[in-house]
Amino acid sequence: LWYFLVHGTTFESQGLLNRTSVPREVVDYIVYGTVIQEVKTSNVAREAALGAGFSDKTPAHTVTMACISSNQAMTTGVGMIAAGQCDVVVAGGVELMSDVPIRHSRKMRKTMLTLNRAKTLGQKLSLLSKIRPDYFAPELPAVAEFSTSETMGHSADRLAAAFAVSRLEQDEYALRSHTLAKKAQDEGLLLDVVPFKVPGKDTVTKDNGIRPSSMEQMGKLKPAFVKPYGTVTAANSSFLTDGASAVLLMSEEKALAMGYKPKAYLRDFVYVSQDPKDQLLLGPTYATPKVLEKAGLTMADIDVFEFHEAFAGQILANLKAMDSDWFAQNYMGRKSKVGAPPLEKFNTWGGSLSLGHPFAATGCRLVMTAAHRLKKEGGQYGLVAACAAGGQVRVCAGSARLFNPSRDPGDSPLPWAAHSNAQQPLLHRNPSSEPA
């Protein structure tokens, strides 16, 4: 378990520095997010930093906020820069879904702890003789809310039903995600992957979960959560995968002084929370109007939308909620709807449904995809939003961030610039012909 948590994170940190040519010694702080923690590497940010060759004098800490853990890592870094504590921060996230910790049963754990305190051979043999077959049944981890004991898939199915999102609509959206991701990959747009050698297996050089299918094939799959009549299936849900990501954050002054041109500026961000029972996955609907108001923008100003695709039903339910005056008035206390993003601007390079969802690493991917799209498409403003599990606060948290690739006169963005999923730099050397 600890191998990828440490070495995968170390590797993408090195990839980040190699692609940006940023010296390790200028990095003031490192912060990472993770959801499924290993006891040996509970502060994985610190272990990965040391493994990547950062100075042992560079502080590092790890945060957790469910699926928006790397979002929290990034905004924590931004806050440190805004407060004048740092000029350069590396932020990111890591998740290992293929080898999650599996615990012994409570009975076995209790017996083993007691056995460890036994002083004589007789006491040890007596304890061992009390072990029964059911002691060996492991406690398997579940992707479920602690406060409701409901899996996110069940919640997505109920949400889709509440907003009358059909199975057909969900399958069509999922197929769209895979089709767009395949197109983006074929066109050389998904260049953020740093090749990683998996022990005993091949080297991963690109996203390998993109599988455009057909409506006929997707329609054959049975409901995954609410059986037999649910609409959420394996085909219209994001798949769990291993992943590590990182971005490079700098104050504008530091970036320009070092000869870099920021790829993107953070303009504003918000976090919101709501009832984890019935609104677990509606974070983007609540967060979007708030961040637009804070930034002084409207939906019409946004050129690029990148929303986390936990489930196709979750995405489509949010789009319906955002486009509903009734929902805005009755649930959000607003006079009118914020409006749904136009699909021609929405997740046009695929999303979590086709690229996978390594919990804590997804946030950086969303931000970097938005930044790349802004540059590629000549856009000015991008909006990133993600839902997340309730976690410790037992509520659903959502985040939305806005950034623009070039400052406008009068803009006062928060001091950030960034990099990518351990790969293509958000900060890059300024060509001599292009003024900073």
UniProtKB/TrEMBL annotation:
Organism: Athene cunicularia (Burrowing owl)
GO CC term (a single one): mitochondrial inner membrane
Function as written in the Swiss-Prot or TrEMBL entry: Mitochondrial trifunctional enzyme catalyzes the last three of the four reactions of the mitochondrial beta-oxidation pathway. The mitochondrial beta-oxidation pathway is the major energy-producing process in tissues and is performed through four consecutive reactions breaking down fatty acids into acetyl-CoA. Among the enzymes involved in this pathway, the trifunctional enzyme exhibits specificity for long-chain fatty acids.
EC main group: transferase
Superkingdom of the source species: Eukaryota
UniProt family annotation: Belongs to the thiolase-like superfamily. Thiolase family.
Reactions the enzyme catalyzes: octanoyl-CoA + acetyl-CoA = 3-oxodecanoyl-CoA + CoA; an acyl-CoA + acetyl-CoA = a 3-oxoacyl-CoA + CoA; butanoyl-CoA + acetyl-CoA = 3-oxohexanoyl-CoA + CoA; hexanoyl-CoA + acetyl-CoA = 3-oxooctanoyl-CoA + CoA
Pathway: Lipid metabolism; fatty acid beta-oxidation
Domain Thiolase C-terminal: 260-393
Record PANTHER family: ACETYL-COA C-ACYLTRANSFERASE (PTHR18919), TRIFUNCTIONAL ENZYME SUBUNIT BETA, MITOCHONDRIAL (PTHR18919:SF153)
Protein name as it appears in the record: Trifunctional enzyme subunit beta, mitochondrial
Compartments where located: Endoplasmic reticulum; Mitochondrion inner membrane; Mitochondrion outer membrane
